[in-house]
């Protein structure tokens, strides 16, 4: 419960615990309305971990079909069995864009972002897991940092930045 209390405190919230012997315990969390709860896909890039909101993810796969077109790296995939066309998505290498410390894995993964959001693919080292988390949007100076929308505090106390796929 100490971890929960410190996390709630870090988020400028309040934790109330009411307990009566033989009656039970009621735990009430009060969090600011500036927080959002979202399903997030956690990815590893170098020595860092980032979150990508699941609502923007179309699919995840190996790094296959990378080409250079007009000086830009793109991920080319066929249109599937029912479509003869192919599509090219701009490939964004997160280790380069975010200047992450540590060695990048040469056998990375690619996260395809939904076309109605932005026609890109994010290259990361690995996909770790997905989890529903509380996200605190960045405010003030951090609000204008391209590529980052907020952060979450995991159960072990680690703070993970959430990527903004529309501005990265």
What structural keywords apply?
about 170 residues, mainly beta, six-stranded mixed β-sheet, 13 strands, about 10% helix, about 50% strand
Short description:
By secondary structure, this protein is mainly β. The chain has helices at residues 2-10, 94-97; strands spanning 14-20, 24-30, 36-45, 48-53, 57-62, 66-69, 72-78, 86-93, 109-113, 120-124, 126-137, 148-153, 159-163.
Structure, described:
By secondary structure, the protein is mainly beta. The protein has helices at 2-10, 94-97; strands at residues 14-20, 24-30, 36-45, 48-53, 57-62, 66-69, 72-78, 86-93, 109-113, 120-124, 126-137, 148-153, 159-163. The chain has a six-stranded mixed sheet with strand order 5-9-10-8-7-6.
Which percent bin holds the helix content? under 10%
Taken as a percent bin, the fraction of beta residues is over 45%
Instruction: Give a quick account of the main beta sheet: strands, pairing sense, barrel closure.
Output: 6 strands, mixed
**Topology as H/E string?**
HEEEEEEEEHEEEEE
- Report the C-alpha radius of gyration, rounded: 19 Å
Q: Please tell me what the overall shape is.
A: elongated
The overall strand count is: 13
Q: How are the strands of the biggest sheet laid out side by side? A: 5-9-10-8-7-6
Mean model confidence by pLDDT: 88
Total number of helical segments? 2
What is this structure's SSE topology?
Blueprint: H1 2-10, E1 14-20, E2 24-30, E3 36-45, E4 48-53, E5 57-62, E6 66-69, E7 72-78, E8 86-93, H2 94-97, E9 109-113, E10 120-124, E11 126-137, E12 148-153, E13 159-163
